[in-house]
Amino acid sequence: MNNLELVKLSLIFRVVIIVVIYFIIFYAIKAINKDIKIADKVADKRNRRLGLRVINIGPYERLRNNQVIMITGLITIGRKEGNTIVLKDPYISSHHARIYKDEAEYILEDLGSTNGTYLNGNPIVNRAFLDVGDIIKLGDFTVKVVE
What we know:
- By secondary structure, the protein is α+β, with helices and mostly antiparallel strands.
- It has one helix at about 5-45; strands at about 50-55, 70, 75-80, 85, 95-100, 105-110, 120, 120-125, 125-130, 135-140, 140-145.
- The protein has a 6-stranded antiparallel β-sheet with strand order 2-1-11-10-7-8, with no helix packed on it. A 5-stranded mixed β-sheet has the order 4-3-5-6-9, with no helix packed on it.
- It comes from Clostridium bornimense.
């Protein structure tokens, strides 16, 4: 090999190395951008505040239709005094269900009620995650999850 061939070979290696470095930088920036978008979505979800819009209060209730109850902490629902929402419906257990926020998720939990807790028409087993537009039904009491 002469000097001219070594110079050409050296130039080719330099170009290949530069191209590889640019690909590495490009994919690193792409991955960082994706992580930032995911972090923004999680932050938006953590800062989101949900409430319960009363659709049907059932008989004998203290609430009003279309009233919104914001989920600011633990909400307990049951027939017994001391619950956040007291429902004098015979199909509601003393301590029927609870709703709370855990990290970025809102959770509906059935507390072993006799007649069940329904989310979007389906009975929940133990607990379920809530989202905007979900319909919760306990006895005659029905609420819609709103922002």
